[in-house]
């Protein structure tokens, strides 16, 4: 089992920045690709960004491309989501997810472990 804990969410004005972190613990010896998803009220959970085990491959949703960056530090067992130029439509609960594979995926159903989520609210 892998436990994921997100942090770094909060309230920010439009145009501002936040950096989310996701710390992994438990059985983390196996390689895991990581992803970030988000869910706004009344909407389905959607893909935001993903990164391979090595960090050499990333996928970014078109809705955040050019504004968000995903990275990871395997020594710290932590993945990050740097969010710049935030917009009110980025308001959502952001979830970290781990996939038992070295390859990143944009598909929600391919992830095996999920964090509890962290709220991001962007005011206009």
In words, what does this structure look like?
By secondary structure, the chain is an all-beta fold. The protein has strands at residues 2-7, 10-13, 18-26, 33-39, 46-51, 58-60, 68-73, 78-83, 92-99, 113-114, 118-123. Strands 2, 4, 5, 6, 9, 10 and 11 form a seven-stranded mixed β-sheet that branches. A four-stranded antiparallel β-sheet has the order 1-3-8-7, with no helix packed on it. Strand 7 (68-73) and strand 8 (78-83) form a beta hairpin. The chain is globular. The chain starts with a strand and ends with a strand. 34% of the residues are buried. The model has no long low-confidence stretch (mean pLDDT 96).
Key descriptive features of the protein:
mainly beta, seven-stranded mixed sheet, 124 residues, four-stranded antiparallel sheet, 0% helix, 11 strands
């Amino acid at each position: 089992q892998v436990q994921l804990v997100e942090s770094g969410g909060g309230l920010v004005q439009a145009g501002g920045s936040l950096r989310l972190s996701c710390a992994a613990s438990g059985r983390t010896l196996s390689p895991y690709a990581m992803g970030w998803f988000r869910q706004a009220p009344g909407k389905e959970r959607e893909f935001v960004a993903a990164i391979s085990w090595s960090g050499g491959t990333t996928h970014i949703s078109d809705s955040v491309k050019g504004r968000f960056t995903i990275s990871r530090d395997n020594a710290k067992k932590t993945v990050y989501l740097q969010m710049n130029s935030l917009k009110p439509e980025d308001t959502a609960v952001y979830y970290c997810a781990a996939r038992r594979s070295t390859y990143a995926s944009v598909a929600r159903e391919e992830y095996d472990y999920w964090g509890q989520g962290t709220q991001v609210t962007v005011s206009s």
